[in-house]
Write a structure and sequence with these properties.
This protein has about 280 residues and is α/β, with parallel strands linked by helices. It has a single domain, classed as Rossmann fold. It is built from 9 helices and 8 strands. The chain has an 8-stranded mixed β-sheet with strand order 1-2-4-3-5-6-7-8. Helix 4 packs across helix 6.
Length: about 280
């Protein structure tokens, strides 16, 4: 048995979100880039702030409209091998209008980095932000962390492995928003998505969120597009149940009428209640 009774072709279709939109995601990727560029041209933004020594270890920061505001940090998707923070500012206006600052992270992509390295980079970005809170004008005890697709996996693993380090740095993550995420890497390792990732069995175990729950504390919102593949929806539901059983405050919702690639273009996906 390959995985949950799927044939190879079935499994590849389930873990290819583009199968739900006819195969061509170019219009969506182009829209990400165009909208992000438009927002950068109209909003105050500090671009390519270095949180590490590599040219890929940078982030963009959109200040809030008032001092000591909450901060929303976003980790982009792209199956760990595409996109960047440059393409990931679509939600910046809605977040800032909601009274938060906004940061979108870049990280090194496969095959130049392994998923474990990406998790470490995202952790380092959060720690750097914590150290720069006063200079950037946000409150490090009022943090929302979100991630889409592969970015949701990275966000969950940062929380599972680094929550205590973030707390020591003065950063309190109050809300975690996970959007159309991947929480079990086993099926990924069995599809062509794995070609640049080259996941080992040890990595599949050590980096799968379903096997490494974070410590309870933040409010978790797990959301998924109604027109995502059945496996993406199942993984989201299963992760919610694991969080509930683990004592977390967690909610689940389907984004009606949306699919994997347009779900992050709608402000309601990202906005949180006042902190």
């Amino acid at each position: 048995m390959l995985y949950r009774g799927f044939s190879q072709d079935e499994l590849e279709q389930e873990y290819s979100p583009r199968s739900m939109i006819g195969g061509d995601l170019t219009p969506y990727v182009d829209s990400y880039a165009a909208l992000s560029a438009q927002h950068r041209s109209r909003m105050e933004v500090k671009e390519n702030l270095a949180y590490g020594d590599s040219p890929t270890q940078v982030l963009d920061f959109f200040p809030a409209q008032q001092a000591d505001a909450p901060l929303h940090i976003f980790i982009h998707g792209g199956y760990w091998q595409a996109l960047s923070q440059r393409d990931s500012a679509m939600m910046a206006p809605a977040v800032v209008e909601n009274g938060q600052a906004f940061a979108t992270l870049n990280y090194t992509l496969a095959p130049h980095a392994r998923i474990g390295d990406m998790i470490g980079e995202c952790r380092d970005a959060l720690l750097w932000l914590a150290s720069q809170a006063e200079a950037l004008g946000f409150n490090p005890s009022r943090i929302t962390l979100s991630g889409h697709s592969a970015g949701a996996q990275l966000a969950t693993m940062v929380m599972a492995t680094s929550a205590s380090a973030l707390a020591r740095a003065g950063m309190r993550v109050r809300d975690v928003i996970l959007i159309s995420g991947v929480y079990d890497l086993e099926p990924i390792s069995l599809t062509p998505v794995n070609d640049p990732l080259q996941l080992t069995p040890v990595e599949v175990h050590d980096l799968s969120p379903i096997l490494h729950l974070p410590t309870p504390g933040p409010r978790y919102r797990v959301t998924v597009a109604e027109r995502d593949t059945p496996e993406f929806i199942r993984q989201s539901r299963d992760y919610v149940e694991l969080l509930r059983k683990g004592g977390h405050s967690v909610s689940f919702d389907l984004q009606k009428g949306m699919q994997h690639f347009d779900v992050i273009m709608h402000p309601g996906t990202f906005l949180t209640a006042p902190q």
